[in-house]
Amino acid sequence: MSDNATPLHLGQTSSLPASPEEAVLDYVPNPRPQALYMVRFAAPEFTSLCPVTGQPDFAHLVIDYAPGETIVESKSLKLFLGSFRNHCGFHEDVTVGIGERLFAEMTPRWLRIGGYWYPRGGIPIDVFWQSGTPPEGLFLPDQGVASYRGRG
């Protein structure tokens, strides 16, 4: 997370970080901290690398969260997610790691991530993680990504 109160990326020219560890996520004050609402980010063209073969893996990520005092700045999130394109990791590690990092740094009321991975070795792997029970009264739409069915 950025050390200063001013976002590092918002309104600035930013380069894609070389790795998720080097990526800096910016958070800004929640404009409606008293309201219970959900924010959704969808990354339908997410990529990382297979840790065994080094070949690219593709996923459709859906990140839902109920903000607390801060919200994640979207440009920094895009750069963070983009930094995985040269990162080797199993689907489970990548998906859960993204969710855990966002939850730890942003401290939302609640967060979930769905990683809908395209087949590797003929088997699609979908990975889901959430921080706990959603707050009572939070509207939770379906993530809207169908399980992989192949062609046709």
From TrEMBL:
Where in the cell does this protein reside?
A: Cytoplasm
Q: Provide this UniProt record's keywords sorted from A to Z.
A: Cytoplasm, NADP, Oxidoreductase, Queuosine biosynthesis
Record-annotated membrane-spanning stretches: none
GO molecular function ontology, one term from the record: preQ1 synthase activity
Which ranges form a coiled coil?
none
Q: What pathway does this protein act in? A: tRNA modification; tRNA-queuosine biosynthesis
What's the domain of life for this entry? Bacteria
Xref: InterPro entries: GTP-CH-I_C/QueF (IPR043133), NADPH_dep_7-cyano-7-deazaG_red (IPR050084), QueF (IPR029500), QueF_type1 (IPR016856)
Active-site residues, as the UniProt record annotates them: 50 (thioimide intermediate), 57 (proton donor)
**Chain positions recorded as substrate binding sites:** 72-74, 91-92
Q: In UniProt terms, what function does this protein have? A: Catalyzes the NADPH-dependent reduction of 7-cyano-7-deazaguanine (preQ0) to 7-aminomethyl-7-deazaguanine (preQ1).
HAMAP family, per database record:
QueF_type1
- Name the record gives this protein: NADPH-dependent 7-cyano-7-deazaguanine reductase
Q: Which organism is it from?
A: Aurantiacibacter flavus
